[in-house]
Design goal:
single chain, 716 residues, mainly alpha, 4-stranded antiparallel β-sheet, 3-stranded antiparallel β-sheet, 31 helices, 7 strands, transmembrane helix
């Protein structure tokens, strides 16, 4: 019986952990599968997977054509090792999921096909290499598949789903855009083709229709503006109207239409994604509750002892005091059990970052208590704690910033810098005297800088002033409208990693294709080189070209690093390749990223305007409690509420308090926009609504009815 209860507890902990981290893996519920599932989700397993994924991608730097050449045997052995790790990870995943689920999952099939293709290509390439037959490593293009399709990369897959869902709608706008481009190109041919105009290089101007189409397409990116217009503009100023009309229609209107279409589809499918996450999270928490529930009167509950064991399994790293705080929030009336409503909030509760601060008495309060607790000392410390003290030094920093911008050669400016330094030292000493001695670390750092022999006094001043001026960010953050923007920037940081991975995938694919197509077509030669065709970048076809005369020879596809740089610059000489990359990267991916920023800003603005906070966060802020260290023996939380009358400053404060702990919310800012949207959606789901089953959740479509509208307009 005890073993069965232990297995149910382990399974319930797996459900709660999945709900906490929004994992949607449909794992088996047998004891062996659950233990393997725990191992699968361990941090070192995920870290190892990502390490070998990026190691596999980085092989392009060492393979021919290489930035840093390594023997073929070395790179092939590393690739085989990576493929074995991927296969092992895939087999581990197969062990924890049902067979029919595993084989229906497209990403598993993609991984297996990619492994098979890579091994096949490696064997063929190695065999041909033995006979000195040159061949192409075509399988390198499938390496990004591993970054996309492993279970850990669900955010990147989600971004790709956004692209896939956007393509049908964006195709119609793109066809209209191409129609407009072709029409303007035809007009340009008729307007300028018979004028015998020439470019600055002496080449015919706008006489070939396909060349005109490409030049005008580049003009949409503004990369060749105003160069493409100047021959016509020099001939007649009225011809500028043609290019102005083209830029307005195609650059401003059509590019904005692309963004509008992408944003509209992004919001629609984001709503479905968030709905799926919210329902899955609710379903997993309900499954965990059903495993642990006991009957208490007319309701089912989870006993306090069972709840504590569950939290220890789900979050083993949190302290006893932190766990007692969570229990106090879940069992507010201290009944000895947690009801269903409070239990369903456990995943959110664990996701809130709580800082535990130990209350220490100030050393001066022990060494010279009479002096430290005197009326003068208390007055001095109250001045340092007052907001006016902070504002005063903010003004000093602003003045200091003005002086930094002035001429340092003036002796008065140099003297003023030492005055500011003295004021900063006084501030540090006053804060060390008032607050905990941990600020001494900063003081010791400054002393170390002063004692460093390799820096002169002026360099030390520069370092100190730069660090102090950074405090101006806090002044900006204190203004509400600026805070909205700052919060938006903070919220998009996690998604920057997702779109960074997405961008890496696209760049890798295009870089590998570019290397295979254009390797050796362009060569870079040092200045004063006597090599044949050095002035033509090693290619006679580039003689007298703007590319060669502009000394762009280093922009080539001769290795992986150079390919990345060329793609970043968008200086691709091949026209179709350039257009394909621009469509994928700029029109689609960048617009999806901009769509996310727009949604993040709207949500953050709504949050600031309506002061949206979850009930859990409000509860922790209300409690804001200090915990007696001595009382933790019985794991009971004492009612030491933090308040103006009980500020928990320890012996160094104006009121002596016992040694203990203080709990603080790390930040009121939501870590991701998705988390906020998910909470907004969960608020619409009634407690008694257990939602659809696991299978139904995974098959939800955008047309499925939902309880309310999950968009930012709802909060506005």
């Amino acid at each position: 019986m005890a073993e069965v209860a232990s297995q149910e507890l382990l399974l319930a902990a797996a459900f709660v952990s999945d709900a906490q981290y929004n994992r949607n893996i449909p794992f088996k519920t047998s004891p062996e599968a659950v233990r393997l599932y725990y191992l699968y989700n361990r941090w070192f397993m995920r870290t190892a997977t990502y390490f070998f994924i990026f190691l596999n991608l980085s092989l392009a730097v060492f393979e021919e054509p290489a930035v840093y050449p390594l023997p073929f045997l070395a790179t092939s052995l590393v690739e085989v090792l990576c493929l074995l790790v991927f296969f092992g990870r895939l087999m581990h995943f197969a062990k924890i999921t049902h067979r029919n689920v595993f084989w229906k999952d497209t990403k598993n099939i993609c991984i297996m096909v990619a492994i098979l293709l890579s091994l096949t290509d490696l064997a063929i390439y190695g065999a041909l290499r033995i006979y000195n037959i040159k061949s192409v490593r075509w399988s390198r293009i499938v390496r990004p598949i591993f970054l996309i399709n492993f279970a850990e990369s669900r955010q990147i897959r989600r971004a790709f789903r956004s692209i896939r869902n956007t393509l049908p709608e964006i195709t119609y706008v793109f066809l209209l855009f191409m129609f407009s481009l072709l029409m303007f190109s035809l007009m340009a041919l008729k307007l300028f083709g018979e004028r015998n105009l020439q470019t600055a290089e002496g080449l015919p101007y706008f006489r070939d229709y396909l060349e005109i189409v490409f030049d005008l397409y580049v003009l949409v990116t503004t990369a060749n503006s105003p160069d493409v217009m100047m021959p016509a503009f020099d001939f007649s100023s009225w011809y500028a109207l043609f290019f102005i009309a083209f830029v307005i229609v195609n650059t401003y209107i059509f590019m904005s239409l692309f963004l509008a279409v992408v944003y509209n589809n992004y919001k629609k499918h984001l709503k479905n994604e968030i709905r799926t996450l919210a329902y899955m999270k609710r379903r997993k928490m309900i499954e965990a509750f059903n495993l642990l529930k006991e009957e208490e009167g007319t309701q089912f509950v989870v006993r306090e002892a069972m709840w504590k064991q569950l939290v220890k399994l789900v979050a083993p790293d949190i302290s006893n005091s932190h766990r007692e705080l969570l229990l106090r929030i879940s069992d507010d009336e201290q009944k000895g059990f947690i009801d269903k409503k409070s239990f369903l909030q456990l995943a959110d509760l664990l996701n809130i970052q709580v800082i535990t601060l130990k209350i220490r008495s100030h050393p001066l309060g022990q060494w010279m208590p009479r002096v430290y607790r005197s009326a003068v000392s208390q007055f001095l410390r109250s001045v340092v704690r007052h907001r006016g003290f902070v504002w005063t030094y903010d003004v000093i920093i602003l003045i200091n910033a003005v002086f930094i911008a002035l001429d340092e050669e003036s002796p008065y400016i140099s003297y003023a810098e030492w005055v500011f330094l003295a004021l900063y030292i006084i501030e540090i000493l006053l804060k060390v005297y008032t607050y905990e001695p941990r600020l001494l670390i900063f003081q010791k750092t400054n002393l170390f800088l002063f004692s460093a022999t390799k820096y002169n006094s002026q360099r030390i001043l520069d370092i100190v002033f730069i660090l102090r001026v950074l405090r101006l960010i806090r002044i900006v953050d204190s203004i509400q409208r600026f805070r909205v923007i700052m919060n938006t920037l903070i919220n998009i940081v996690p998604t920057m990693l997702t779109f960074g991975g997405l961008t890496l995938v696209v760049y890798c694919i295009f870089a590998i294709i570019g290397m295979e197509l254009f390797h050796g077509k362009i060569q870079f030669f040092p200045p004063n080189s006597n090599a044949p065709y050095a002035l033509e970048c090693g290619n006679p076809a580039l003689k007298d070209s703007l590319f060669a005369r502009g000394k762009y020879c280093k922009n080539n596809f001769n290795n992986f690093a150079s390919s990345f740089i060329v793609l970043m610059e968008l200086t691709v000489p091949a026209k179709l390749y350039f257009i394909a990359f621009h469509i994928v990267m700029v029109i689609i991916i960048v617009n999806i990223f901009v769509s996310f920023i727009l949604e993040a800003f709207f949500v953050e603005y709504s949050l600031e305007k309506s002061e949206v906070e979850t009930a859990i966060e409000q509860k922790i802020q209300e409690l804001g409690m200090g915990v007696q260290e001595e009382a933790l023996q019985d794991e009971q939380l004492l009612d030491n509420m933090e308040s103006p009358d009980n500020d928990l400053e320890g012996e160094g404060g104006t009121k002596a308090q016992p040694k203990g702990l203080v709990f603080k919310i790390a930040s009121k800012r939501y870590r991701t926009v998705d988390a906020l949207l998910q909470r907004m959606f969960e608020a619409e789901i009634p407690l008694e609504d257990e939602g659809p089953s696991f299978e139904e959740i995974l098959n939800l479509s955008p047309a499925t009815a939902v309880p309310g509208d999950l968009t930012s307009e709802r909060a506005v």
